[in-house]
Design a protein that fits this description.
about 500 residues; alpha/beta
Length: about 500
């Protein structure tokens, strides 16, 4: 067994599918910012699927890392000729391995920002795609305003500054294309936020407008907003962080020595608006749903799958679980998730063409309960201040406005607040991973004396604390979490919900 690279492909075990196309003929028409596990299990996989059919060879990917920490990914991919192993793990223990070859280059912006800008500005680049996480669009969670005072943004807006942020790099590339008479590329967001294309348009246009004000190019912001295409898309595939155990298991099962493989569930979905300026790969030939309106699919996924991840993770962690499948194999937790989806999330959704919502919700529980994926509860608990306001609070607001149920949704918020105290029910420390950790943890630790302290954070919750139904429900759930613990609180909620459903 040797390391994975182009020369090793012919010697891999026949059970490992390898690229059937000439990678030397692949041209990089896409620059992708944020080459993590999800991108490699999703967009890169779809393109590899097309290339194996002899299509989309002009749509190879040049990866870009913007953060210093991206160096590890760059080094791993360069060492392997940009190849990596993708392993789909079924709930029955089956594993399907394939080597993905659609990434053909990788640039690290901290080392050479000029190379990144010029690659984006090149006529060959027709799409710049993004997986920069929910917080990567730099909006205030409540007001929706672009945060012009973010340190990286402030730096990049200084005259003559070398760009360090995604905004600075992309907008500089667009400026150069405009100066050279080249049409702008399409900016394709692949992040888990509602209206991800619209969010990208707002953030990049806002940055361009600020840059234009600084440089005297008053039309720049309007030009970006008017001329650049930002299609919306819904993406879905559970893809946990790669572990050393994954690396060892892949080496043992398939004889592949891969520095950074990807493991994921078999399920994969991408629903995408057909709104591209300079053409696109024939995504529909690879199983992508290309539609006129993505919003119903987005709401379905964000308020059912993503919000349900939040529903299970804080309660699950406090109850002693560390792996997602363990939580969802507990019938009481499964009942809690289904009750949330049926009673509170589903009434907020738009009609979704071609989707059996009842079957979709049951399938979600089965996906979460897949013991082979071994997704961690801690991963779902991270970055909560970016996730809860986008995925769960809209459900609460809708139901408050329409007289709907909020019992379970508010319990999830309370479980987050209890988790954010940074100490579990056995007195052991919790590593709270959140961009607002230094603000949230001290507030959470004071809420035993001031039960509404956490939800008074108007940056996250807006005016919800002023709603008596929300505040009283929250206070009751938080008191139960403190007095009785997560499992007893969850049990009480499930039993009361069943009683209401029976009447």
């Amino acid at each position: 067994m040797g390391p994975l690279n182009a020369a090793a492909l012919s010697a891999l075990h026949p059970s490992v599918a390898v690229p059937r196309y000439d990678r030397g003929a692949v041209r990089a028409g896409i620059v992708h910012v944020g080459v993590g596990a999800f991108h490699r299990a999703h967009q890169a996989m779809y393109l590899d699927r097309l290339m194996n059919e002899g299509k989309a060879l002009e749509w190879g990917i040049c990866g870009v890392g913007v953060l210093p920490g991206d160096r590890r990914m760059r080094d791993a991919l360069v060492a392997q000729d940009f190849l990596y192993t993708l392993v789909e793990k079924g709930p029955d223990g089956s594993q399907d391995a394939r080597v993905i070859g659609s990434i053909v280059d990788y640039l690290l912006a901290p080392d050479d920002p000029e190379a990144v800008i010029e690659r984006m500005a090149s006529e060959e680049t027709r799409i710049v795609s993004l997986t920069v996480t929910e917080g990567g669009y730099n909006f205030n969670a409540v007001t929706g305003e672009f945060q012009a005072d973010a340190p990286g943004v402030v730096h990049d807006l200084e005259p003559g500054a070398t760009p360090t942020t995604t905004f600075g790099l992309v907008v500089e590339a667009l400026v150069r294309r405009r100066q050279r008479g080249l049409p702008p590329f399409t900016v394709l967001s692949c992040d888990n936020i509602q209206g991800n294309g619209d969010a990208a348009r707002r953030s990049f246009s806002a940055f361009a407008r600020l840059r234009g004000e600084k440089s005297g190019d008053e039309e720049l912001g309007d030009w970006v907003e008017r001329e650049v295409r930002f299609p919306n898309g819904m993406v879905d595939r559970i893809t946990p962080v790669t572990t050393d155990e994954d690396r060892a298991g892949i080496a043992e099962s398939f004889g592949v020595e891969d520095r950074w493989p990807v493991v994921c569930e078999p399920f994969c979905q991408w629903v995408l608006e057909d709104r591209f300026a300079l053409g696109r790969p024939p995504f529909e030939d690879a199983g992508v749903q290309v539609v006129a309106d993505v919003e119903p699919y987005e709401l379905m996924k964000l308020r059912l799958l993503n919000a349900s991840h939040q529903a299970l993770c804080y309660f699950g962690y406090l109850a002693g679980y560390r792996l997602v499948h363990e939580v969802c194999q507990d019938q009481e937790f499964a009942d809690f998730l289904l009750a949330y989806m049926d009673r509170e999330a589903t009434p907020t959704l738009l009609p979704v063409a071609g989707i059996d919502l009842r079957a979709y919700k049951r399938e979600l529980i089965e996906r979460f309960a897949n013991p082979q994926v071994r997704d961690t509860v801690a991963r779902l608990c991270a970055e909560s201040s970016d996730r809860i306001p986008k995925w769960l609070l809209p459900v609460i607001r809708h139901n408050l406005d329409h007289g709907g149920d909020i019992e379970l949704s508010v319990a999830i918020v309370a479980s987050w607040a209890r988790y954010a105290e940074g100490v579990d029910e056995q007195g052991e420390p919790i590593e709270v991973v959140d961009p607002l950790r230094d603000t949230l943890v001290p507030i959470a630790r004071g809420q035993r004396d001031d039960p509404l302290a956490f939800i008074r954070n108007r940056q996250l919750f807006g005016d919800l604390v002023d709603d008596e139904r929300f505040a009283s429900t929250y206070r009751r759930h938080l008191a139960s979490l403190h007095e009785h613990g997560a499992r007893a609180t969850l049990h009480g909620i499930v039993e009361r919900t069943k009683a209401r459903s029976a009447t």
